[in-house]
Specification:
Length: about 775
């Protein structure tokens, strides 16, 4: 890939993927067990003798050395966002398919994971005002949610006083275990479930094994056993639910961003076994055929590894959806605050990071020496009532597993009846609390390390607990070391609103730069993703642990999984208000009107460090929906623009066809530069090995969606030290007949005087204004080293 070769840091993004590929290719010849693959086929090559593509695909598997029943092992056939099929294959069948002239690509099915009431107000939405009023709360828009299913009985999914199902809808309400057509209504217009890839992975072998449905805890139907899908669906479009709370926390009226939008649930993720690419791709195919307007997918890789677009079914499926005019919102991943941790980076996807809202759930840790440490908690059981308890830190033993309170790591003789300090790791925080409870601990204090910094997330633990930041954790451990009999108690202070500053970029939110193509800034923007109240399943308690028998109608979760559906709901409102807007226009409206300041009118900060955040953290900024309703200008894109981008990054026509479904032709000598994709941001890459001044030119085209007769003036808002920026022309004039105008930005950087941060980048911004609208664009200037 051209972009990877120009940026050696990108190898960090791709090396794990290449390691897997090498492992996989070396193993298949020696392994005759079945594995699941996704096969991209040139559908135009189907011989006329076959009545359908299904028959043709089956014939491709019937060879002299194929395993008996080969044709029956076809799992899914794809014909809308992707042309091809998925199947369980032997090594010989795989070799045969790879050499077939009609097969464009073969890649192994991979396992992915979910990126896991006040937030609509925090987005600027008010009853009977602005976007809610102009869009009728999104009542004519259908949002498809690819997730873990849905719990349809929740009040959030009531169809009271909703009109008929939109005529566009062509989907079904698929029956299954404890779920039937009666569970759908004018709100939940359809539901499907996809498990063939998941089940096949459990029968096979290889590096992605771990699938297969656990029938003791799952429903073989769209019904949600995990809770995640119910939560995200109600965040997108939950109806008004009065007296909502999670065990008294966040009490009030719960509602989604687009309360009257219709929902279609596509269950692709299964408790314990995760989400498999072949099922996700089948859900994309179904959702587009069913007639959704928006797709929300809070799913990504289980780590920060990113595959090339042509080997990424989320990128492929979303391209097909966007080509059909469907807006696709995806989560940026939870591997922050590390750089290059953002996932779902395809430029046709809207990639959403997470920020805080102005609500918190404070809890204080009071030490035996009188010092009070600030933390957060969602514990709702019997309080400690100010009683001091012995305090113990298992990590003093030197055992890493004990410091993280991992399974079977705690000595009951050491922790029984005490408050236990656990270091926050990368695993489930609620599981750490359960380990402490099983060992006899009376409470837990979860202390952040350097990687999490000061970012705090509340959890509904089953024992008294508080989460504290890294600096408070250091103070706590210093106290432990200073006395032979350390004691502490925890005080829970309920719900606090009006928190300042907010929003703050969540410490866990995936960060740029984009490791596949740094010319495209990712994430695109951030939205509320910390301590979000939304509907929950009855199948499991608020911690999601099997041992948690509590029932709750609503739960409070954090993650970019929670931020993504906010943007999906926003897209539903904008699509309702502006039915003719393309997916790119909707994204542009959100990005160019996003907030850069918090609620004390200061630049947004990074939760992990407390320092000012950058576009690598928040993209274009924090979504502001009332301004997005009337952005003035938008940066639009078509399928042809994305094809030119793929040509520009060095993909061959055959590789691009894996993504686009149809044959394409890249220009010979003059390919489009990837940085000239008509994106609402500009990233300039300069070589660090060249001394002195360097210059780059960028072209953008804006479409007027405001007053037909408008005049916009440019303003360079900020420029990094060592950089100069020129915009030509400086004025854009629109009329009834002139709706589009182009401009050029020339950025000059002197590598001798350019001041960059730890990421090797510097940041600025520019805007266009007609006196009413301000159309913002982030500017990133990056030094790159040649190989």
């Amino acid at each position: 890939m051209a972009s990877a070769n120009s940026h050696p840091r990108l190898l960090r993004c791709l090396l794990p993927f290449f390691f897997f590929f090498c492992f996989f290719t070396s193993a298949i010849s020696a392994d005759s067990t079945l594995r699941t693959y996704i096969i991209r086929v040139d559908s135009e090559s189907k011989p006329s003798v076959f009545v359908s593509h299904q028959h043709w695909y089956a014939s491709l598997l019937v060879t002299h050395d194929s395993v008996p029943g080969s044709a029956a092992r076809i799992l899914h056939t794809y014909d809308t966002v992707f042309h091809g099929f998925s199947a369980s294959l032997s090594a010989s069948e795989l070799d045969s398919l790879r050499s077939h002239p009609s097969v464009l690509a073969v890649f192994e099915d991979r396992r992915r994971q979910l990126h896991t009431t006040r937030s609509p107000q925090f987005l600027g939405l008010r009853n009977q005002q602005g976007l809610w009023s102009d869009s009728d709360y999104g009542s004519d828009v259908i949002v498809g949610v690819l997730d873990s299913g849905i719990w349809p009985e929740r009040r959030s999914f009531s169809d009271l006083n909703l009109g008929p199902v939109p005529k566009r809808w062509k989907g079904v309400c698929e029956a299954g275990e404890k779920f039937g057509p009666q569970n759908c209504n004018r709100k939940l217009v359809g539901a499907r479930f996809f498990l063939k890839g998941n089940e096949a992975s459990g029968r096979g072998a290889g590096p992605w094994i771990g699938g297969g449905i656990n029938n003791t805890i799952e429903f073989r139907s769209p019904r949600d056993a995990d809770g995640h899908g119910t939560h995200t669906a109600s965040t997108v479009a939950g109806r008004h639910s009065f007296r909502a709370s999670m065990a008294g926390y966040a009490f009030g009226i719960a509602k989604g961003v687009a309360p009257k939008a219709r929902l279609a649930a596509y269950k692709v993720c299964w408790k314990e076994s995760g989400c498999f690419d072949s099922d996700i791709l089948a859900a994309f195919d179904a959702a587009v055929n069913d007639g959704v307007h928006v797709i929300s997918i809070s799913i990504g890789s289980s780590d920060a590894v990113s595959s090339p677009y042509y080997l990424d079914p989320i990128a492929i499926g979303s391209y097909g959806a966007v080509a059909h005019g469907i807006f696709v919102s995806s989560s940026a991943g939870n591997h922050g605050p590390n750089g290059m941790s953002v996932t779902n980076m395809a430029p046709w996807l809207t990639t959403v990071g997470a920020g805080t809202i102005d609500r918190n759930f404070p809890a204080d840790v009071i030490l035996g020496n009188g010092v009070k440490l600030s933390g957060v908690s969602l514990y709702s059981g019997p309080p400690l009532s100010g009683k001091m308890h012995s305090l113990v830190y298992p990590g003093k033993s030197g055992l890493l597993s004990a410091s993280f309170c991992m399974e079977n790591s705690l000595d009951p003789n050491l922790v029984k009846g005490k408050i236990v300090i656990c270091d926050r790791g990368s695993g489930a925080r609620v599981a750490q609390g359960f380990v402490v409870q099983k060992a006899g601990g009376i409470g837990m204090i979860l202390a952040n390390g350097l990687s999490s910094g000061e970012g705090l997330v509340g959890d509904a633990h089953m024992i008294p607990n508080a989460a504290i930041g890294a600096s408070e954790g250091d103070s706590l451990k210093a106290y432990i070391s200073s006395t032979t009999h350390p004691t502490a108690t925890i005080e829970f202070r309920g719900t606090q609103i009006g928190i300042k500053p907010a929003p703050v970029v969540a410490s866990f939110s995936g960060r740029g730069p984009n490791c596949l193509n740094p010319e495209i800034l990712k994430p695109d923007l951030i939205a509320p993703g910390v301590n979000i109240l939304a509907a929950w399943t009855d199948a499991i308690g608020p911690t999601g642990l099997e041992s948690d028998r509590r029932k709750t109608e609503f739960n409070i979760l954090s993650g970019t999984s929670m931020a993504c559906p906010h943007v999906s709901g926003a897209a539903a409102l904008l699509k309702s208000a502006h039915p003719d807007w393309s997916p790119a226009a909707i994204r542009s409206a959100m990005m160019t009107t996003a907030n850069l300041l918090d609620n004390i009118l200061q630049p947004m900060t990074d939760e992990s460090t407390g320092k000012p955040a950058t576009p690598y953290d928040f993209g274009a900024g924090h979504i502001n929906l009332n301004r997005a309703l009337d952005p003035g200008l938008v940066y639009d894109l078509t399928s042809d623009d994305y094809v030119n981008f793929l040509c520009g990054i060095g993909y061959s026509s055959k590789v691009i066809q894996v993504i686009t479904r149809f044959p394409v032709s890249c220009p010979g000598a003059r390919k489009s530069l990837p940085e000239n994709l008509n994106y609402p941001s500009i990233t300039a890459l300069f070589s660090s090995s060249k001394a002195g001044a360097q210059s780059k030119s960028f072209t953008r085209t804006v479409t007027n969606v405001g007053d037909p007769k408008s005049v916009y003036q440019v303003k360079v808002e900020s420029v990094p030290k060592g950089v100069s920026m020129t915009v030509n022309p400086t004025m854009l004039v629109f009329s009834e007949s002139v709706k589009k105008q182009s401009y050029t930005v020339i950025i000059k950087a002197n590598t001798n005087s350019l001041t960059v941060d730890y990421s090797g980048s510097a940041f600025g911004s520019m805007s266009w204004s007609d006196g009413k609208h301000v159309v913002m664009n982030p500017i990133v200037v990056t030094q790159v080293s040649p190989l």
